[in-house]
């Protein structure tokens, strides 16, 4: 998954550089009034790589019969489609929100085995997953500067803030090895801290901003505590983490 994400990043950056080379002219500065706009809107398209951070419980130290004794998260790739709104505070600070729909279909969350002597097979735990993310962040940006022999064509920025996530599939049942029904142990709402880096290219008719962002969940997503489900009693805490690569197209 990470290899695929790196390939997508290279392709997107190549697309942006090609756009700059195609549409820019050395004697013209595009969107000269952009920095004075009170706000601007746009859309976003990207990919994200998600994985769960699992904190093992006491059952791993003193396992009961049938308890989980080995568990490993699985990385999941999402397609991201969103809208972007930015409010200018001054020349170097802005507030940005980017409500986004994350689509993956069925999410294979992790694999596990139990100490049940009658079943030593590796189990794959999958959950339906369609996520709506609502991040709110502070964008800290540089002045515009020359690049690729074009005047005032780009700037770099840092963005940091919080994200609220809502999984629309959290009320549906999970499956184990695609055929056994199991309770969904993942809560449907999440909150995370985010940190990202990006570059903005000011072209003739639009601003294109490739961005990489890291999201670290700080809410425990463990939902069920029924002792008859050994998968749940063997876990003390579940957090969700994301790596996003996004292209923002504004104005």
Uncertain spans, ≥5 residues at pLDDT below 50?
A: none
**Most strands sheet:** 13 strands, antiparallel
How many domains? The number is: 1
- Enumerate how many helices there are, as a single number: 2
Element-level helix/strand string:
HEEEEEEEEEEEEHE
The overall pLDDT, averaged over residues, is 82
| CATH topology assignment | Porin
User: Which CATH-level-2 architecture?
Assistant: Beta Barrel
* Beta-strand share of residues: over 45%
Taking all Cα atoms into account, the compactness measure Rg is 22 Å
Q: In CATH's first tier, which class applies? A: Mainly Beta
SS elements, strand count = 13
Structural class: mainly beta
Description:
- The chain is mostly beta strands and 251 residues long.
- It has a single domain, classed as Beta Barrel (Porin), CATH 2.40.160.
- Helix content is 10%, strand content 57%.
- The chain has helices spanning 2-23, 230-233, and strands at 39-56, 68-73, 76-88, 93-97, 100-114, 123-141, 145-147, 150-167, 174-176, 180-182, 189-202, 207-217, 235-250.
- Strands 1, 2, 3, 4, 5, 6, 7, 8, 9, 10, 11, 12 and 13 form a 13-stranded antiparallel beta sheet that branches.
- It is elongated and about 75 Å long.
- The two termini are 32 Å apart.
- The mean pLDDT is 82.
What's the topology here?
Blueprint: H1 2-23, E1 39-56, E2 68-73, E3 76-88, E4 93-97, E5 100-114, E6 123-141, E7 145-147, E8 150-167, E9 174-176, E10 180-182, E11 189-202, E12 207-217, H2 230-233, E13 235-250
